[in-house]
Amino acid sequence: MTAWQELGTDTPREARAAARLNGSAPRPAPAPPWPGSWQPLGARFRTDGEGGRGTNFALWAPGAEAVDLCLFDESGRESRHRLTEQTYQTWHGYLPGVLPGARYGYRVHGRWDPWTGARYNPAKLLLDPYARAVDGGCTTHDAVSSAVRGWPERDVADTVRDDRDSAPYVPRAVVVDDADDWYDDQRPKTPWAETVLYELHVRGFTMRHPDVPPELRGTYAGLAHPAAIAHLTGLGVTAVELLPVHHHVSEDHLQERGLVNYWGYNTLGFFAPHAGYSSSGSRGQQVGEFKRMVRALHAAGIEVILDVVFNHTAEAGAMGPALSFRGIDNAGYYRLDRSRRGYADYTGCGNTLDTRRPQVIRLITDSLRYWVAEMGVDGFRFDLAAALARGSDAVEMEHPFLAAVSQDPVLSRVKLIAEPWDVGPGGYQVGGFPPLWGEWNDRYRDTVRDFWRGARPDVRELATRVAGSSDLYQRGGRRPYASVNYVTSHDGFTLRDLVSYDRKHNLANGEDNRDGTDDNRSWNHGAEGDTDDPAIRELRVRQLRNLLTTLLLSSGVPMLTAGDELGRTQRGNNNAYCQDNETGWLDWSLLDDPQWRSLTELTARLIRLRRAHPVLRQRAFFSGRPAGPDGPRDLSWLTPDGREMTEADWFAPTRALALRLSGSAMSERDQHGRPVHDADFLLLLNAGPEPRHFTLPGPHRPLVDTALAGPPEPAPVTGATLTGRSAMLLTA
User: Fold this and answer.
1) Which of 642, 515, 649, 648 shows the shortest CA–CA distance to 573?
2) Main-chain phi, psi angles of 396, to 5 degrees
């Protein structure tokens, strides 16, 4: 049945008339709410001056002609209450007797004029952008769109309003009691230079964990369980970077294939913890459960960083669902193209939030402050952050959004990490963000991958990345910890797949293997996927040790991806965004295999070394100069024969070099102003296939040898022969 036939007509022309007359929903309640207050935005439960209890509702909708607050009882029956008060473009009212757990939404009346960007449609139930909790899912149905999806004239379909009620198919906002004094929470406040990030998915981390009770697996409570936290503290990571936990929904195309948006980069509610990760309920219980998870992680000394998606929303393009922002003020929230009918898309997801507008900046900063002050988180990683800094078109590092964050007394004190690119022109901004911001450094990722697979003819780029990427981050007073170093992330191959596959294997995603990058910089070492060949298997595991050793001993902030230390595989899927199954979940049974258990132990050993030795995590860039007239350089690069590298050596083809760190030449001072001293270290790297002998500057004791499954013999040596494709760390 076509969309206009579902409206009870036979032709598109008749459908236009029927759409105007087809108002079957109940009329607004005759008694309006009390005036209430225009701030704060959202739904706030409170006690009134006479001891009564109720909720104040406030919605910014500057172009609206009327706003109906819609309440839903336990049976799902809707009652409408017209908000008659408007202050500073905000519609507001107070309803006595509305308590925490109540479900609500809005219907916004106004012009339907897509040619000017106005897409008001009161037939669509809209989620409060400031909702603290969300209940219910989003079902695939054409009525969810504000325009008629089945309109035969497709070039104008987005201009034909669909007046079918969307309420049966969309989620509701939930009134939440905000009372929580956080008296027992102690934030770890880990300095940037001491930070080790661990990127994980709340659901995927515990779904197969044998020591987490089944009813808690895949939830906030599951991540807070002692068995889950024990793995994190055993590794020694200082912060978890959670894939999106803002309430999100799945796109229609995924639901039609029986899949979901597992990663969650399709946000609907910027203040609401995703209800699907709650073990205790979705009527506000998810808020308390999230807070308890944060408390548990803090008690273990682990910070909580959220991966946040403010660059776009779940409403997609013009024919996408009308779930919230589009129906409240389409032109006020989104960047529109020159036609005003369409959207400027710098995200590849159909729309881009317009951070040039004060109200959008307010929405984002209000959300960020809420998660810090009331939910207890310690920082944020911003997905496609360049999109948030776009002016009229170009990315601008003096953008009002960046300025608002940098001067905010709350946000300027937490960890801020940019994914420093988007998909628009000039969107690649690695090294371009201002002070206070760290950045995902994909140049580090690509360089380390290329070095260990033998794709680089010299070692110049590798040396720059391992030493902290001063070429990218030294400007503006930034420090080495502005570089978030990583070899893998959620987006791409796992570490094990990186050494096991030459190409992606994404057929399970239902997109004919078109999705996911083809630039993997991977190497299968002679066989695609799993193999019984013992030589290939041994070399792959050695390469995993090489990659982890390089990552955890580089200057900057290392980021591990959950499960890489276990040897987790996605069977070659490099875009498992829709795989809410064993492909996307961690396989804890790998720890039963001595091969993978030893990889976990190596990871923990490297993190302990990093924590114990400040020379391995310095807060300042290396100068390459001696601290005194006759002292050693703070950083020296050596050839395998033990001499310092010359300019000719840097340009000569080679796959081997040595890095010497001097603990006596550090520029660090402690809190009392005293010089910090440490041991000297040598890091030897041999990416060539043949063994390579290194002459050492005096006796050194081996600490790590990636050719071995366990620790090496600690006896001092004056020379070291590295197996082909291996690394070694030694101390004087």
Assistant:
1) 515
2) -125, 120
Sheet holding 85-87, edge to edge: 42-47, 53-60, 90-96, 85-87
> What is each CA distance from 367 to 309, 335, 351, 528, in whole angstroms?
11, 20, 20, 45
| Residues contacting residue 30 through CB under 8 Å, at least 6 positions apart | none
Asked if 603 contacts 435 with a C-beta cutoff of 8 angstroms, the reply is no
- Whether the pTM exceeds 0.85: the reply is yes
- Any idea which fold 623-731 has? Immunoglobulin-like (2.60.40)
pLDDT at 530 (0 to 100): 97
Helix (H, G, I), strand (E, B) or coil at 596: helix
CB 658 within 8 A of CB 624: no
Q: What is the gyration radius of the CA atoms in the chain, in angstroms?
A: 28
Q: Which of 545, 548, 573, 567 is nearest to 559 (CA)?
A: 548
CB-based contact 448:487 (threshold 8 Å)? yes
Model confidence over 79-94: pLDDT tens digits?
Answer: 999 999 999 999 999 9
Cα–Cα distance, 366 to 128 (Å, whole number): 14
- pLDDT score, position 631: 81
- Name the class of domain 192-324+379-402+425-615: alpha beta
Tokens of residue 721, six digits: 């022969």
Query: What is the β-pairing status of strands 112-113 and 118-119?
Result: antiparallel
Catalytic residues: 383, 419
Q: Tell me what pLDDT residue 52 has.
A: 86
Q: What are phi and psi of 362, to 5 degrees?
A: -65, -45
Q: Where are the beta strands (DSSP E) in 249-403?
A: 267-273, 303-308, 379-382
Which stretches of the chain score pLDDT less than 70? 1-31, 49, 181-182
- As a whole number of angstroms, the distance between CA 666 and CA 696 comes to 21
> Residue ranges per domain, the chain?
192-324+379-402+425-615, 623-731
Cα–Cα dist 29/423, whole Å: 46
Entry field: residues in the chain: 732
Instruction: Provide the token pair at 445.
Output: 């990722």
Residue 86, strand partner residues: 91
Q: What is the pLDDT of residues 198-223, one digit of tens each?
A: 999 999 999 999 999 999 999 999 99
The span from the CA of 98 to the CA of 104, in Å, is 10
Share above pLDDT 70 across residues of the chain, in percent, rounded to a whole number: 95
Residue with tokens 């628009």: 424
Residue 318 CA to residue 335 CA, distance in Å, equals 12
Burial of 719 (0-12, 13-18, 19+ CB in 10 A): exposed
- Using CB atoms within 10 Å of the CB of residue 18, give its burial: 0 to 12 exposed, 13 to 18 middle, 19+ buried: middle
At 31 the pLDDT is 66
Same CATH fold, 623-731 and 192-324+379-402+425-615?
Answer: no
Distance CA 239, CA 414 (A): 13
Contact 676, 666 (CB under 8 A): yes
Give the whole-angstrom CA distance, residue 538 versus residue 706: 11
Give the pLDDT confidence of 130-152 residue by residue, as tens digits: 999 999 999 999 999 999 999 99
